Amino acid sequence: MATNDHKPLKVLLNIALARHTGYGNDGIDIAEALARKGVDVYITPVAVQPPLPQSVANLLTKPLAAPFDLMITHVDPGSIFIPPDQRSAADLIVGWSMWEFSTLDILPRRSSFKKRLKNLDALVGYSDVSTEAFRGFAPKKLPLGTLQGGFNPELWPYVERDWTSDCFRFIMNGVMNARKNPFPVIAAFAELKEEHPEEFEPAELHIHTRVPTIPVEIMDRVPKLWIYCETFSDLEMQMFYRIGHALITASRGEGKNLPALEMLSTGAPVIYTDWAGHQQWGSSAYAYPLRVELRPVRTSSYPECKWAEVDKQHLKETMLHCFRNRDEVREKGLTASQVIPQKHSWDNVIDQFFSLLPELAPGKGHEVKLKYDETLREAATGSSGDPHRTEVRTHAPVPSTNSGRR
């Protein structure tokens, strides 16, 4: 692989493009982040759902021009597959995926997982839990690594909140399905209302979800509980985060949890189950980890495939502690706003991804990393002459659904 021809690194992305799904949202952001770095990006989409940023839509018009220096297939583990005829299209092929359970026992197409990975040079999981789940079913010689996807902090700047009023708002955000596990939070909030009727009276719980899994009638039984079953725009989401003093996620398993990173970026802490993807960004320095117990997802069928169940008593104690200690909560939020945007931005994560390649694939990975570094230098001096490169705006002014925030 030549590194002195001044041509930018060529990367082929096998990704979904859709703001309403986790993989699709990350796919768009990966494409934009690579293009910002000066990389020559090509896309073979597994799914496309408008609206798309114009810069990413433009990439779909580029004819594929093999060979590529690197191919990244960023899809769910049940869909990873590199056909033999694509093996020769790229010098290095890396899978990047996530899984929210302790094993792949409940993965559709699990029996073909090992065979479908044989044309990969490496596989990267979003969390240690993801990677270890892959390890149990992947080819023994396939190098495995861990690197969590990022987020775009520009949309979620630090905001000043009122920390002195009696009112304290807990919020939740996401598709409130069984994995997101909202009902222990509602139960904990209701019990605190009953156990501390006067002190906890100003506390509020606001839940945003896209799916009607929580009966709205529950708002009549639990004081100061609000449920919003609708799609928020980016502006509406910014306002929703702004009203909150702490975000709660009792999720049983995550690859990343985008709302948590967004909330932390705005300067408010997160109360989170201490397992899986949460552990990649979580810290008691700026958030509140919750004790969990690992339990089987399906007890009778696959007892070894587990996810996390939150300790409700610890959740109640943590909620009450936050309600009573506003200064501490504010300081944790301030720390989060300084740490999370820098450490977990997509620009930083992409740099980490290329730094991981020499370790995973010492020969080809090292060559790709060298060419990536050269591309960064060329982009910094504005000397890249690729006629197909498209200028990328970090946040193109197109409507955003945000309904797939994980």
Task: Compute the number of helices.
Answer: 14
Q: Class of the largest domain in CATH?
A: Alpha Beta
Radius of gyration: 22 Å
**DSSP, total strands:** 14
For this structure, the CATH topology of the largest domain is Rossmann fold
Global structural class: alpha/beta
Which architecture of the largest domain per CATH? 3-Layer(aba) Sandwich
Stretches where pLDDT falls below 50 for ≥5 residues?
A: 384-404
Note the main sheet.
6 strands, parallel
Strand content: 15-25%
Domain count: the total is 2
What is the strand arrangement across the widest sheet? 2-1-3-4-5-6
Q: Summarize the helix and strand pattern as letters.
A: EHEHEHEHEHEEHEHEHEHEHEEEHHHH
The residue fraction in helices comes out at 25-40%
Shape label: globular
Query: Termini, distance in Å?
Result: 38 Å
Question: Which labels suit this protein?
Answer:
single chain; 406 residues; Rossmann fold; six-stranded parallel sheet; 14 strands; 35% helix; disordered C terminus
Polypeptide structure, described:
- The chain is an alpha/beta fold.
- A 6-stranded parallel sheet has the order 2-1-3-4-5-6. Strands 9-8-7-10-11-12 form a 6-stranded parallel sheet, with helices on both faces. Strands 13-14 form a two-stranded antiparallel sheet.
- The protein has helices spanning 22-36, 54-59, 84-87, 113-116, 128-135, 183-195, 218-221, 234-243, 258-265, 278-281, 312-324, 326-344, 346-360, 364-381; strands spanning 10-18, 40-49, 68-74, 90-97, 122-125, 144-146, 168-173, 203-209, 225-229, 246-249, 270-273, 288-290, 292-298, 302-310.
- The chain is built from 14 helices and 14 strands.
- Helix 6 (183-195) packs across helix 11 and helix 13 runs antiparallel to helix 14.
- 48% of the residues are buried.
- The chain has 2 domains: 10-150 and 345-381, Glycogen Phosphorylase B (Rossmann fold), CATH 3.40.50.2000; 156-344, Glycogen Phosphorylase B (Rossmann fold, 3-Layer(aba) Sandwich), CATH 3.40.50.
